[in-house]
Amino acid sequence: MRNCPDAVMLFCAGRGTRMGALTTHRPKPMVEVAGRPLVDHALAQLADIPTRVANTHYLPEALEAHLARRGVQTLFEPQLLETGGGLKHAAAQFSHEAVFTMNTDAVWLGGTAVKTLVEAWDPDRMDALLLTVPLSRTHGHMGSGDFERSPDGQLARGGDLVYTGFQIIKLAPVMAVPEAVFSMNVVWNALHAQARLFGAVFDGAWCDVGHPEGIEIAETALKDHGYV
Question: Is the pLDDT of residue 2 over 70?
């Protein structure tokens, strides 16, 4: 598959404050859903990606040991850098012009997330390709949609497509942001203005586990879909 990235950045540095007491003594990626840490649900989607890097910050020791056993390189952030800054800080670990990035607070049902992105990726037209899912196929998502998608795949704000936390993005527009601490939204807004922001639609369902209620919702959805 043409110009397919060979590396992924896993965002694991956040404090997980929405999880409340569940993250008092452990980072959010180590919160369990159906007997497995959230980060392992993410890694299950990434088995065919050889280079895997995760940033850490909050209570990093147990998470770093857990990821080391799974062949994931970790990069400690003394200061929280947000998603865009975290990727910029880790850019030296990657050898290609584009990488996957993935949040680690979701559970996936059906479909193949990596395949969906790779089959849609066209680096001649795109600087970022976000994996989205219709609001109707989300579980535990407490907000509205994030994007709408034009017939040619370009994304704009609004609409009923929810960003799943998984994308392919080129490093150059991330490195072009002068600040050290910034959200990925800064990059996306610039790419939208250049008509370089695109989306693909996941054909399965997706569970948002960024809050405590999402754990039971995800576990129920996993049972209903025959995963546990």
Answer: no
